[in-house]
Amino acid sequence: MRRTEGKPRGPSPWSLAPAPAASAVAEVTVIDVRAPGEYAAGHVPGALNIPLDKLPDALPALKSASARGSLLVVCASGVRSTRACEILSGADIEAVTLTGGTSAWEGDGRGLDRPEGARTTWPMERQVRLAAGSLVVAGLVAGIRFPAARWLSAGVGTGLVYSAVSNTCGMAALLSRLPHNRAPRAVGDLDATLEELQR
Predict the structure, then answer these.
(1) SS3 for 189?
(2) Could you give the maximum distance between any two Cα atoms of the chain, in Å?
């Protein structure tokens, strides 16, 4: 699964469709960059959880793991895993992203591991759409009586434009800290994950 000589090394990472990823999953280290609650709700078998916002702290452990074999990076749809691959590439760590993320994996008829007692959590992209849409509507409705409230809608719109241009999402970072996006205590221990990567 490593890049072959002559493959372009640009900012866009290699990607792997669910079928070839499934046949390689036993030979690679799978890193799930979603929030712990999303990860606990269902992840690619064998995946280790390192949320995207914690990735910079995990670079030494990931560099160590990549020296032993390939890294496959996964999220819900492929957006965050692509961003993660760009960060890893900047740190000279080779990784590939699962095309379409866990949604495509499950849509291809492949199972997800779910810890016992884990609750279902919406993918972060869906949570962001709900939060952003709700704030825009709230700003417009409140603006009927208090015109200054329309600035809330304008602020959210500006934030979404910035998010698209910079390929980052502050709202997702905030939402990932909410209780429903945190994993049960038995799942999502970052220190234990980093130790496992350095073995």
Answers:
(1) coil
(2) 63
* 14 beta partners: 96
Which has the minimum average pLDDT: 22-26, 149-153, 168-172? Answer: 168-172
CA 178 to each of CA 104, 172, 183: distance values in angstroms, whole numbers, following the listed order: 26, 10, 11
Beginning with the edge strand found earlier in the chain, give each strand of the sheet holding 96-98 in spatial order: 14-16, 96-98, 71-74, 29-32, 48-49
Q: Are 28 and 44 in contact (CB under 8 A)?
A: no
Element housing 101 (H / E): helix 101-107
Only one residue has tokens 């220190």, namely 191
Specify the pTM: 0.69
List phi, psi (to 5°) of 153. -65, -40
pLDDT in tens, 29-58: 999 999 888 888 889 999 999 999 899 999
Beta partners for 83?
none
d(CA 172, CA 181): 11
Q: Looking at residue 63, what is its pLDDT?
A: 93
Contact 174, 126 (CB under 8 A): no
Q: Which residues contact 199 (CB under 8 A, 6 or more apart)?
A: none
Question: For residue 48, how many other CB atoms are within 10 A of its CB?
Answer: 22
| Distances 167 to 31, 118, 119, 184 between C-alpha atoms, Å | 20, 30, 29, 29
Q: Which of 107, 163, 125 is nearest to 38 (CA)?
A: 125
